[in-house]
Amino acid sequence: MAEAVHFEDQHRPEETEMSDAKAEKSGGSRLKRFLPLIGLGGLAATGIYYFGDALSFEALRDNREALIAWRDANIVVAALTFTALYAAVTALSIPGALWMTLLGGFLFGAVVATPLIVVGATVGATIIFIVARTSLGETLRATAGPWLKKLEAGFQENAWSYMLILRLVPAAPFFIVNIAPALLGARLGTFVWTTALGIIPGVAVFASVGAGLGEVIARGEQPDLGLIFEPHVLGPLLGLAALSALPVILKAFRKSDPAQEDAADKPAG
Hints:
Elements: H1 2-51, H2 57-62, H3 64-73, H4 75-91, H5 97-143, H6 146-157, H7 159-168, H8 174-183, H9 188-198, H10 200-211, H11 213-218, H12 231-256, H13 258-265
């Protein structure tokens, strides 16, 4: 009996070392997983501190002549730089993307600015989506209960419909719409194309407002940022959102009607 106890005691230090090694490896892996999120947060804080005041109507108004001169010096470089800056502002979730949209319309006109902004916003949104999925997705799944799996299943079944609705209807902040699909297991490809397609109408509206900023500034007025909530603008957006929701409604109807579900599953002929 004493020999058995002695034998067990000899192996306890090794087991403790293995356990400590596993804990250390797990901790290192967890830290590595959160590094992109930490880095993104640090860059965001730096960007807000140094450039937060630059993303405003006052800054645009006071520097309009310098901005126009910069654009005229090399319009291709200006367009590429603007797109990259828009992607950075979106990825870092820096407040002021709206003013960047107005600036794009002011500098390049609505027709040119809209695709530049869509590309920049999509790239930036994709970056934060990947970071959120890498850093937060696994942690959330490990700590959440069965409710998350049910929520994920419902979301993934109609992912593109839900994401288009979120993009078309300006109800939630843009950065939340970037993070939520990542936590619900959305596919990267679906996220990218629904983001690019879904933001086009809203971007076009505000880029058009930006294109008219020269006259607004000349009159000493403020731009009308509530334009998107006017019936003639919001109505079509809600119509597109309702169209995107149609597949979800049809699926729900089929599930609630067994006869319809059986007919859909029954092979033709």
